[in-house]
Write a structure and sequence with these properties.
about 220 residues; Rossmann fold; 2 domains; 4-stranded parallel β-sheet; two-stranded antiparallel sheet; 8 helices
Length: about 220
């Protein structure tokens, strides 16, 4: 059996150096060469190679070398617009949560001001009741006896597919709903906003606070829980 890959617990990180073959025993750079070489052949496809090349250039352009040292320069929304320009995309799609309509509207304005044709689709498109996917009255957010429309990320993806968008942007789709959108979108997808209802859509805050105010995140549970 192959050793478990645990890059997140690595103490050497030699893969980011010329000594990438000197990692720990379970380093995938050492133990998973077949998968790595298979992946590299994908970059030989012109479209994927160009996508990866432009993404790397975008990463490079996010920094400035100043006399006092290297510093960052672009927020993510700027990066999204710049990358889409680099790729020559004209038509962009936005798949957004109904709770972030204002943010989706602002993003639309920003992208249209950059010359893009923008199509946006709300998660509640179709107006389908939650009962369609087996949600019970007790499982509704507002409680029994209240109409609630299901989120339909597959419909969002299909509509953007029909519209022929070249690059899709997720704005605050729920966990799981975003996964369905990724799976069904024909165009490549990036995330501008990852929903976090507690931390103002900054999920990393929970990790930063996991040793203090949110230490409960580190609790141990059995598989049955």
């Amino acid at each position: 059996m192959k050793e478990k890959i645990e890059c997140a617990r690595c103490t050497k990180t030699v893969c980011n150096s010329e000594r990438s073959d000197q990692g720990p025993a379970n380093c995938p750079t050492r133990t998973r060469q077949e998968a790595i070489q298979k992946a590299l052949t994908e970059y030989d496809q012109p479209e994927i190679r160009e996508f990866a090349r432009q993404a790397s250039i975008q990463e490079f352009e996010c920094y400035m070398n100043l006399p006092e040292g290297r510093t960052t320069r672009n927020p993510r929304v700027e990066e999204v617009a710049q990358f889409a320009k680099k790729m020559g995309y004209k038509k962009l799609g936005i798949a957004f949560c109904s709770g972030l309509m204002e943010e989706a509207g602002l993003l639309t304005t920003i992208l249209e001001n950059r010359g893009f044709d923008v199509v946006s689709v709300c998660c509640k498109v179709g107006g389908t009741p939650k009962e369609r996917i087996g949600i019970t009255a007790e499982q509704k957010i507002a409680g029994p006896g209240v109409w609630e429309t299901m989120c339909s990320p597959i419909a969002q993806a299909e509509i953007l597919n029909e519209e022929g968008t070249e690059f899709n942007i997720v704005v605050g789709l729920c966990v799981g709903h975003d996964s369905l959108f990724f799976k069904h979108s024909r165009a490549p997808v990036t995330v501008l906003i990852a929903k976090d209802r507690v931390f103002g859509h900054n999920p990393a805050a929970a990790l930063y606070l996991s040793h203090s105010y949110y230490r409960k995140l580190l609790r141990q549970e059995t598989p049955s829980e």
